[in-house]
Amino acid sequence: MRTLIASMLALAVSMPAAADTLPEAMAAAVESNPSLAAQRQRLNATREALPQAWAEALPQISVSGSATRTSSELNPGSETWNARAGASQLLFGGGRVLASTRAARAQIRGAVADYDNALQNLLLDVTRAYADVRQTQAVVAARETTVSNLSTLLEYAEAQFEAGVVTRTDVAQSQARLAQARTQLVQAQGSLAAAVQAYQRLVGRPPSGLEAPLPANGLPLDLQSALDAAGRQSPVLRGAIADTELADANVDAAASAGRMRVTLDGSQSINGDFEADTDSRGDSIGVTVSVPIFQGGAVRSRTRQQRANRAAANLDLASAQRSVQESVTNAWTGLASAQAAVISAREQVEAAELAYEGVRLEQETGLRSTVEVLDQEADLLNARIALAQSERDLAVAERQLLAATGSLTVPEGGAAAPSGENIELRGR
Fold it and tell me: What average pLDDT score do residues 260-284 get?
């Protein structure tokens, strides 16, 4: 049993010597987390939709060339060549370019919102992992203290039994409680090892002497302020709004397929014969007007389809507004509950420590039985575990509220977390 405890503890606490803070852990996750990096590349890919939409309104230039050899019974063979350069410019596209540009901008805004939402979720997950490691470390420390206290109580019970003061039952009770405490210590160390691995998966390195997280900055003063902040900056809402803008642009893009298109076309060509060493040139310039007359109802069908998608996007926006309101309200009430729980848990620990010391002294004077001391030790352990849980819940609840309002960022002391609007595009 002791060998197993030692091996699991060594696995859980094999960490570098330097201490980490929550801002440092958040900054490291932003820099190294592969899921966030993948989302960043998706945003970069989506940004290319805008120059692609612009391209249709810009001149289209092409060149081509060919060389041909022909032969027949009457003509033993001839070799000719041809070169052509052409250009076209869209003069009127029925609103297609404008609609495509609006759609591209909406896609980019949606991708930015998706990236910011992924960033918020990552920072919140890092907070949970950070707090989980600290909580499990506190639980392991509390259970180690319990094992130490119960070992002392067992030695005391055995000495009292040898002296004829207590019965064998008191010794057996102490032995049972100590065995149970050792088992629970092993389980706590296993939970610590799992928490360390979850932290390393998100942050990219094992935890090292995690310091207590400072209270979060920028918390709203009241529920209405939190709801107002979420309405302005929640990435969930920004993404839903971008979807409605995209759907509206898609309606115009679908309708534009049934409108007139006007292009200006020009070309220059050169034809020649390799053997005759002669060539001829030709130039052309003109305006092309195309008007769809009948397309089997496809344009109207696609337009109706996009209008239905627009109506669905508006309904999704209303659903997102309700969901964000629910998340902010739950986060606000959760924070209030967590703050009250921490105060209560600290008072509980202070009272349980005082009660335990009193019962131990009373046991030594014969006023308390062994089982009463064991019960009080269990109460003290439960109080310490409850305090560790409440402190973990408070750290998470503060960041949960910030994430719900869309304002969770890396605090001072860590690197600035790049939002979707500020990502630098390389290779341009």
Answer: 85
Tokens of 223: 């529920």
What's the total number of domains in the chain? 1
The pTM assigned to this predicted structure is 0.85
Report the alpha-carbon distance of residue 126 to residue 25 in Å, rounded. 7
Helix (H) / strand (E) containing 176: helix 168-203
Q: Please tell me the distance from the alpha carbon of residue 100 to that of residue 105, in angstroms, as a whole number.
A: 9
Is 422 inside any structural domain? no
| Alpha-carbon distances of 143 from 2, 59, 427, rounded to whole Å | 14, 75, 55
Query: Two tokens at 168?
Result: 């064998």
Residue 408 region by backbone torsions, left for phi larger than 0, else alpha for psi between -120 and 50, else beta: beta
Inside any domain, residue 7: no
Distances from the Cα of 126 to the Cαs of 11, 136, 144, in angstroms?
21, 15, 27
DSSP 213: P
Residue 345 pLDDT more than 80? Answer: yes
Candidates 14, 30, 410, 17; CA nearest to 203 is 30
Helix axes 235-256, 96-162, angle to 10 degrees: 150
> Does 303 map to a domain?
yes
β-bridge partners, 80:
68, 273
Which of these, 283, 287, 290, lies nearest to 86 by C-alpha position? 283
CB of 203 closer than 8 Å to CB of 25: yes
Query: Looking at residue 269, which CATH number applies to its domain?
Result: 1.20.1600.10
Domain for residue 72, yes or no? no
Flag whether pLDDT at 237 surpasses 70: yes
Q: Which domain holds residue 93?
A: 26-66+78-413
Look at the block and give the residue holding tokens 């609007």: 421
